[in-house]
Amino acid sequence: MNKIIKKIKNLQNQITYHNYLYFCLDKPIISDIKYDYLLNKLKNLEKKINYKKFINSPTYLIGSSIFKKSKFINHLTPMLSLENIFNKKKFLNFYKKMLSFSNKKKIRFCCEFKFDGVAVNLIYINGVLKQASTRGDGKKGEDVTKNVFFIKSIPLVLHGKNFPKIMEIRGELFILKKDFLSLNKQNNIINHSKFSNARNLASGLLRRKNLEFELKKKLLFICHGFELFNYFKNIDSYYLNLLKIKNWGFNISTQILLCSSKNKILNFFKKIKNLRSTLKFEIDGIVIKVDSLKLRKKIGLISRSPRWAIAYKFPNEVQETKLLKVKFQVGRTGVITPVGYFKSVNISGIKIKKASIYNNKELKKLDLCIGDRIFICRAGDVIPKILKKKKYDTNTILNKKVLFPKKCPSCLSVLKSCSKENNFYCTNSFFCLPQIQKKIIHFFSKNAFKIKGLSPHIINQLIKKNNFRSPIDFFKLNFTTLKSLNNVGQKTANNILNSFKKFKYITLEKFIFSFGIKGIGKSVSYNLASSYRSLKNLLKIQKKNILNIPGIGELIYQNLINFLSNSNNLNIIDQLINNFNIKVVSKKNQSLTIKKSIFYQKNILITGQLKNFSRIEMKEKLENLGGIVKNYISKNIDLVILGKNPGKKFIYAINFKKKILTEDKVLKIFSKI
Ligand code: IVH
Prior knowledge:
There is one protein chain. With 673 residues, the chain is α+β, with helices and mostly antiparallel strands. The chain contains 26 helices and 26 strands. 37% of the residues lie in helices and 21% in strands. The strands form eight sheets. A five-stranded mixed beta sheet has the order 2-13-10-3-9. The chain has a five-stranded antiparallel beta sheet with strand order 16-15-14-17-18, covered by helices on one side. Helix 1 (2-24) packs antiparallel against helix 2 (32-49), helix 12 (433-443) crosses helix 13 and helix 17 crosses helix 18. The two termini are 50 Å apart. The structure holds 2-(butylsulfanyl)adenosine. 2-(butylsulfanyl)adenosine binds at residues 80-82, 112-115, 119, 135, 172, 224-225, 287, 306, 309, 311.
């Protein structure tokens, strides 16, 4: 039996994927005959074991209009929003008002989590999902039907029988806190940008047009509303209808309170507030709803919000503590950032003991003295922030104010101010130790001159003990120096030296990025490289051309000119190219070796564990040879590199007859280049 189920699941996955390619992308990759063959095979197997649980099977979906193309979808009934309240008094007002509308002494309320996610409307016809859309302007929302296809908690076909002919199911899409943290770490996942909170990330994932369904699977849906069009006329209760909906295959809030007592609601609010930090997903309050659907109709709406429901939101958690010190940190580009250190506090389950004070303007605004009582919160419930100090603190009279220093706290050179940014800078970039450390770590980082094994720990030791000052000192590294460092054995030393030896090519984009010029991050580097195409052109930079490049204004132009007119910098570039034979290649003008490589301009997937490289190293190597390494299965994959215990990507590679190379074969190819 298990074997059959495995086969069925495998076939379901395959067909689902082909449906997606066919219906959503109009790019089928197998013939109709092959598709029918797979589908029949699946139908027969499902029939054989009469396995009703396969309700989400593609065999149920054939002929559905799920894949219709349009940008916006009209909601059948308007999607409203909720009015927010933040205190007990407002809640009691709401409670009283509801009773007065009903003319009764007691009415039922249903209370649930207020999920912090993205609202979605799902339209089901005869139990089959037809359309999914975002809230939009409340009347029509963005069509995300295709995008929800891989979200497990959105059933494509409902469980059970006797559904309303037409219905709207409303709810919230969100991702787990742990997935937010790990996806945000891989900040290149979505448009190379980080998301400040889980809601934004969920919204980003939902809207992604690409095939990255592995990512979309991280989205979870919870139902908190519906429009059943008089279906359950006799069941005059939101809660009881919700239980029906649960049986059709939806998740509903795990904590629901059905009661008629204001005190019970207030206790529920307290309980959920305490529970909040232990939950696996973000909530920002509770929602209190009148339970009777008939009474809801009577109570009605106020403009775009129902009068019969309210969101009772949690206050932003604030803790009082004592300011211990303010350190002025020197950044890579010399910018000085004040950081406040305080007696640690616990906010939403996380221990916090420091917070950035951003710049001089913020420092002045806070008006701090060491020893002050201060209030801390987590902005957007994530980033630690000093809100303000306690007023009339006698400490202010006894102690001196924390002021921005006039000199660099590290090298003591006089700071330069940049009033536009409210910042102070240390301009002594070649002799100021923290700047040197951060610049070199950046230079040899992942998206720049990545050298295997050259960790920040090793870099810092070489700077402190061996007086290394420029990237060139590192290119001259020898075995004895490396071996003399703490925690560097023979293997690490050899790895580092080999990595330097093999480092021959770098794209112009990475080359520009590696120097860490102020304001020139990954995307500006990319834009500069795309416009200038070669290092030679870049070195002859002219103002009138550069200002047309996206993301580059007067300030960045000036930073670039300052960098290029500094003889130390030009000397480093000259030595890299002429003494260490580094070739700076533009993506459109790759060297012949690269062009000849079988990886050149190929979309590559890596699956399974590699013996000889880490994933990142393999990716780097392939990219150095012009390959484009993808993280997810997509229709454009050209070849798949196979490690030990390969995953799903291998199955797709076989099914779609992609070129497959074993790691050993790849190693051989590398060794010939
Ligand atoms: S009921 C007409 N219940 O909050 C009332 N909404 O500010 C509509 N939300 O757009 C929603 N958790 O997406 C309801 N348990 C819950 C909710 C909830 C989160 C969202 C919803 C809505 C927004 C309103």
